[in-house]
Design brief:
The chain has 115 residues and is mostly beta strands. The protein is built from two helices and seven strands, in the order ββαββαβββ. The chain has one domain: Beta-grasp domain (Ubiquitin-like (UB roll)). 10% of the residues lie in helices and 28% in strands.
């Protein structure tokens, strides 16, 4: 049996009231997915889509890689906005989800009720 001995901190999603633990070397989004939790919208999980945009209200995170300026401006980043797939928690974190999940393939399909 494998015991995960990595240091962990709590992550609280304000909108849902859900709290989960995140290892210090995994992204906030990876931790949520690993635990089967919901709350942060999931897209590409690699920083390219911006779906997992969050505002860190309390706590500190460290970068796990560059953040696309197409989704987070330098001003937003300095105000605590980031992509949940590109940061790991250093201290307990309270965040607010700001990204919106839109299904890109929904548009353009015929409505079966109208056929």
């Amino acid at each position: 049996m494998f015991f995960d001995t990595r240091p962990k901190v709590s992550v609280h999603v304000a909108q849902t009231g859900e709290t989960f633990v995140c290892a210090s070397d995994e992204s906030l989004l990876q931790a949520m997915l690993r635990l089967g939790r919901k709350g942060i919208p999931v897209g590409c999980v690699n920083g390219g889509c911006g779906v997992c945009k969050v505002h860190i209200v309390e706590g500190q995170c460290r970068s796990l890689g560059p953040i696309s300026r197409a989704h987070i401006t330098a001003e937003e980043e300095s105000a605590g906005y980031t992509l949940a797939c590109r940061v790991a928690a250093v201290t307990p974190v309270r965040l607010e989800v700001t990204g919106k999940f839109e299904k890109p393939f929904r548009k353009g399909f015929a409505n079966p009720a109208n056929t």
